[in-house]
Amino acid sequence: MANAVANGADSARAGAVLTIDLDAVRANYRLLRETAAGASCAAVMKADAYGLGMDIVAPALALEGCRVFFTAHLEEGMRLRQVVPEDSAIYVLHGPPPGATAEFFQYDLIPVLNDPTQLEDWRRACRLLQRRLPAALQFDTGMSRMGLAPAAVDRLLADPAWKDELRPVLVMSHLACADEPEHPMNALQRERFLALRTRFPGIPGSLANSSAVFLGDGFRHDLVRPGAALYGINPQPGTPNPLRQAVGLRARIMQSRSVQAGDFVGYGARHAVTGPARIATIGIGYADGWLRSLSGRGHAFIDGVAVPIAGTVSMDSITLDVTGIPEERVAPGQEVDLLCAQQTVDDVAREGGTIGYEVLTRLGGRFHRRYA
Ligand SMILES: *Cc1c(COP(=O)(O)O)cnc(C)c1O
């Protein structure tokens, strides 16, 4: 039956409504914390909490007792500081950009020091202030992306003055293949991490992202750092997802028309109509993060029934083949589901040839957002 948007003027004006289920995010946090057993459970807030909205998600997790957060960028950390309890630790994964150490003291942020230049900058800042300021040290254990190489660790330890300067509060590394439990990189990186850790006795360690929380006791150490799993992405692809979906997306039909054999749909006239059909157009496109690679292969859902994307995904709109759906149900103003019980972020990613992380972090700024 009729399913028009009835959520006030704002929602009615929006092309699509993104619903963020804070209860689900909180339940996911509790599950991760339980799975992490003895380890503390942080929450990764980078990219605006993977697109869900850090300003609202972080305080919700604080209500569950979360007091350790990670951002990627300094500016994300500065913003996060305004919305979390004062006693929260905020780590900035990219560390200080050149010349930007003062902001870390000012906003009470902990840099993750990844390379010798950052280490030097931080030590110099500590010397100037005559304070041993907290920092995390990241080791590169095999990803060759960020983190101190073993030789850089040797150089640091060769000069005992470092102990009078910075105060390491966490040693960490990051796994390249945690979502592939059988991958030999996991054990290799763990061994390298353990070897480096012993050189910093008494300092808490952290290795696990979402997937690694499920790799077993040996990967959890003192602190786990899930991001994706909090937001409902399956940390163990190919097995049932133990987490709850955290986002829903619903768009409104703008126009609906009958087409006949010989007609074409969309850019490039790639979709050729072969018989009487009905096409409905919704107001969301690749500029909203609905991947163009879903052209001719993705789906939306109407009352739980899959309707295929017909033709190319446009910047601001998508055409759906809604043949067989009752006409009044595809009239302008009616709604279709894009993320729902029948279609998760991971499903969309699979159809679009990417990963759930990319789908989630691209969901655009033009949606109306509703927190439930
Ligand atoms: C993004 C990130 C995480 C969180 O990873 P998920 O796979 O989203 O859980 C943890 N640690 C580091 C260093 C990261 O960059």
Q: If you had to describe this structure to a student in words, what would you say it looks like?
A:
With 372 residues, this protein is of the alpha/beta class. It folds into two domains: 209 residues, TIM Barrel, CATH 3.20.20; 125 residues, Lyase, Ornithine Decarboxylase, Chain A, domain 1. Helix content is 28%, strand content 22%. Strands 2-10-9-8-7-6-5-4-3 form a nine-stranded parallel sheet. The protein is elongated. The N terminus is likely disordered.
Please outline the helices and strands.
Layout (H helix, E strand, L loop, with lengths): L7 H6 L2 E5 L1 H14 L4 E2 L1 E2 L1 H5 L3 H10 L4 E4 L2 H8 L7 E4 L9 H5 L3 E4 L2 H14 L4 E5 L11 H9 L8 E6 L11 H14 L7 E4 L1 H4 L9 E2 L22 E13 L4 E2 L5 E2 L4 E6 L16 E4 L2 E4 L9 E4 L13 E5 L5 H8 L3 H7 L5 E4 L1
Parallel strand pairs: 1-19, 2-10, 3-4, 4-5, 5-6, 6-7, 7-8, 8-9, 9-10
Antiparallel strand pairs: 1-11, 11-14, 11-18, 12-13, 14-17, 15-16
Helix pairs in contact: 11-12
This protein binds pyridoxal-5'-phosphate (PLP).
Pyridoxal-5'-phosphate binds next to loops.
